[in-house]
Amino acid sequence: EAGVTQSPTHLIKTRGQQATLRCSPISGHTSVYWYQQALGLGLQFLLWYDEGEERNRGNFPPRFSGRQFPNYSSELNVNALELEDSALYLCASSFTGTGFAEAFFGQGTRLTVV
Amino acid sequence: QKEVEQNSGPLSVPEGAIASLNCTYSDRVSQSFFWYRQYSGKSPELIMSIYSNGDKEDGRFTAQLNKASQYVSLLIRDSQPSDSATYLCAVKRAGTALIFGKGTTLSVSS
């Protein structure tokens, strides 16, 4: 069974540009979570989508946005890129959004803003 | 108050010893608790989940949960150099995403 897949693996953008990151959850999973992990730091929660709806949002500016498609895949958009946005962006999926569902991570997208 | 707290370490143990990793959380209505292992430059890998008070064992790993004390721990028996990684504690309740601690770095020396 395929795990969570993210694309692209690496992305290099110029400050001010927009970045789009994509995530395909494990088959049967309806919840998708996005996290940012800056170098040497912990996982910071960005966004949570479940059944096509945004359920929760972390403490990030509005230029971080996303959506979930009918097939439960998701994309994260980062507008007006800043140098501080350089980080590993991780997507995780779970079977449901309830309190008991285990979440599994993709391999991440390394975003570098120059 | 931080939601999930872990000692950042590094925690150094010799090969074959027991490594003990600890985590405290602030949200009393948290329902589920997870331990992830993250190797440098890689994504987190789920190694244990625990939902009720007590111990849960899986191979060399034992997770312990005490909801009254808002405390969860991970014991790694017979530690191996391949266990050297950062261990992330995560907590979840209904209606919220997983919240992670900053992780504890474990170093197992041979």
Structural class call of chain A reads mainly beta
Percent range of helical residues of chain B:
under 10%
- What shape does the CA trace of chain A take? globular
Name the helix and strand elements of chain B from N-terminus to C-terminus, one letter apiece. EEEEEEEEEEE
Largest sheet, strands/sense/barrel of chain B: 6 strands, mixed
Overall SS class of chain B: mainly beta
Number of strands of chain A: 11
Mean pLDDT of chain A: 95
Oligomeric composition of the shown chains: heterodimer
- Please trace the helix and strand order of chain A, writing H or E for each element: EEEEEEEEEEE
Strand content of chain B: over 45%
Number of strands of chain B: 11
Poorly predicted residue ranges of chain A: none
Structure description:
The complex is a heterodimer of chains A (114) and B (110). The mean pLDDT of chain A is 95. In chain A, strands 2, 4, 5, 6, 9, 10 and 11 form a seven-stranded mixed β-sheet that branches. In chain A, strands 1-3-8-7 form a four-stranded antiparallel β-sheet, with no helix packed on it. Helix content of chain A is 0%, strand content 51%. Chain A contains no helices and eleven strands. By secondary structure, chain A is mainly β. Helix content of chain B is 0%, strand content 55%. In chain B, the strands form two sheets. In chain B, strands 2, 4, 5, 9, 10 and 11 form a six-stranded mixed β-sheet that branches. In chain B, strands 1-3-8-7-6 form a five-stranded antiparallel β-sheet, with no helix packed on it. In chain B, strand 4 (32-38) and strand 5 form a beta hairpin. The model of chain B has no long low-confidence stretch (mean pLDDT 94). The A-B interface holds A 33, 35, 41-43, 45, 48, 55-56, 58, 88, 90, 92, 97-108 and B 30-32, 34, 36, 42-46, 49, 51, 88, 90, 92-103.
List the helices and strands and how they pair.
The complex is a heterodimer of chains A (114) and B (110).
Chain A: E1 5-7, E2 10-13, E3 19-24, E4 31-37, E5 44-50, E6 53-57, E7 64-68, E8 74-78, E9 87-94, E10 103-105, E11 109-113
Parallel strand pairs in A: 2-11
Antiparallel strand pairs in A: 1-3, 3-8, 4-5, 4-9, 5-6, 7-8, 9-10, 9-11
Chain B: E1 4-6, E2 11-14, E3 19-25, E4 32-38, E5 45-50, E6 54-58, E7 61-66, E8 71-76, E9 85-92, E10 99-100, E11 104-109
Parallel strand pairs in B: 2-11
Antiparallel strand pairs in B: 1-3, 3-8, 4-5, 4-9, 6-7, 7-8, 9-10, 9-11
